[in-house]
Design brief:
The chain is built from 10 helices and 19 strands. 27% of the residues lie in helices and 24% in strands.
Length: 441
């Protein structure tokens, strides 16, 4: 090959490499997670009952009060696994691990006011370092991931960045295998319960996960009324997630996005006659069950890797965030059975596509088995909030129907739904509880 020809080939290869690098700035979306890795629940320290909740998921998030470890002294000499108040984190997180949970620990520093920190950069770094060294996957493996704060809205953006940068440095140095997540972030300005994602811009080497809370809030104060997940009138539910996905693709490609809080309140009691929650409007148990499961389906379409339900348990308190549990006084609500069935049914499957999404009519989402692509499940439901029922005809696209089940809300065997396909189609009766069609392709 002549020198001129060699130079031409080298130039073409260089140009190809440059174009590949430019194109690589926004990598393709990650493979969709299996549902066993997607479905999570928020627990809380010694109150969480791992043997009970392993029936609904294997991913759990804990609200870990750093004040339990430090008291009011940010430079307190840590004595892990014991908290300063003598709670044994080894007993707490060890019991969760024993039941097969993946533990995400939200390190809540918010109860310490920023002026109480004696040396915020130093003390935050030291806490992160000691936490990761003891709890991280490389040592005792009690924590798989850690979040720097929950909803630190009372900290200024500048103070949160100092806190995040230094604690994350400590966590990263303490155990590089420990995943690090931000607090609840949103695109735009910071608020009382979230920080602007710009607070961590430029610190991409210090985190693996962008964390967001989202609620199907149709109205805020004074009713706090929530709506069904497909409701296009919702001002923020899915829209905030989509904005964060776009921001991530531009500014932090390759990072995970976790929805670490979403949920619905359902109480058997009326709103109080007076006080802050006198006009509160909750949901009933049936709506909570249906809308939680359908929220998982709508989230699965998005480029997110996890979604955690708020909350694990409640005491039937009729107020905002007062009755969001999957259990009521640790007794399963209908949502417990619905989410448990979802976990067992789709645990080894991942979202592939939306087969149909007809507004106010029928939605059909397809899930495929992780190791056997011939095994397919369609989730079919009415995407409305009116307890609508209807008969719809579905083309099976060459697949054969093995069986059908409707989402249960009570304990016990799930009754099968009798269906008779004909000419490659099947007519199904749908309502707001998803119907699962087990197909072979």
């Amino acid at each position: 090959m002549s020198v001129a020809a060699a130079r031409t080939v080298f130039s073409l290869l260089s140009l190809t490499l440059i174009l590949s690098c430019v194109a690589g700035e926004t990598p393709a979306p990650k493979p969709k997670p299996l549902f066993r890795d997607f479905i999570g629940v928020n627990g809380h320290t010694v109150q969480f009952k791992p043997q009970l909740y392993k029936q609904v998921c294997r991913v759990v998030r804990d609200y870990h009060p750093m004040e339990w470890d430090l008291g009011k002294d940010s430079d307190y000499k840590l004595d892990f696994p014991m908290a300063r108040n003598r709670v044994s984190w080894e007993q707490v997180y060890g019991s969760w691990k024993k039941e097969g949970f993946d533990n995400d620990v939200c390190l809540m520093f918010e109860t310490l006011k920023h002026e109480q920190w004696k040396d915020m950069p130093k003390d935050a770094y030291n806490y992160g370092l000691k936490f990761a060294q003891y709890f991280g996957p490389s040592t005792h493996a009690f924590a798989d991931s850690a979040e720097v704060g929950n909803e630190p809205g009372k900290y200024s953006d500048e103070k949160y960045r100092v806190m995040f940068e230094n604690m994350a440095k400590g966590l990263r140095e303490g155990d590089p295998k420990l995943k690090i997540a931000t607090c609840n972030v949103n695109v735009g300005k910071s608020g009382d319960y979230h920080k602007s994602v710009d607070c961590v811009k430029g610190l991409e080497n210090l985190y693996d996960v962008l964390n967001i809370h989202t609620y199907a809030q149709l109205v805020n104060w004074p009713t706090w009324k929530r709506s069904y997940p497909e409701d296009e009138k919702l001002p923020a539910y899915l829209k905030d997630i989509e904005k964060l996905v776009d921001w991530r693709n531009t500014n932090a490609p390759g990072k995970d996005i976790w929805i670490t809080e979403f949920g619905y309140d359902s109480s058997t009691k009326p709103a109080p006659k007076s006080g802050d929650f006198s006009k509160w409007i909750g949901n009933n148990d049936t709506e909570q069950a249906q809308w939680l499961v359908r929220s998982f389906f709508t989230f699965a379409k998005l480029d997110v890797q996890r979604a955690y339900i708020y909350f694990f348990n409640d005491n039937d308190t009729p107020q905002f965030h007062g009755s969001s549990g999957l259990t009521r006084d640790f007794k399963p609500k209908p949502s417990f059975h619905a989410v448990g069935h979802l976990y067992r049914t789709l645990g080894e499957y991942r979202f592939v596509r939306a087969v149909q999404e007809k507004k106010d009519d029928v939605w059909v989402h397809e899930f495929v088995h992780g190791t056997d692509p011939k095994k397919v499940i369609w989730a079919v439901w009415s995407p409305t909030g009116t307890q609508r029922k209807a008969d719809v005809e579905l083309a099976l696209e060459g697949a054969t129907l093995a069986k059908a089940e409707r989402m249960p809300m009570v304990e016990g065997d799930v009754p099968a739904v009798a269906l008779k396909p004909a000419d490659g189609k099947v007519t199904v009766s749908i309502d707001e509880s998803p119907l699962y069609l087990f197909l072979n392709k």
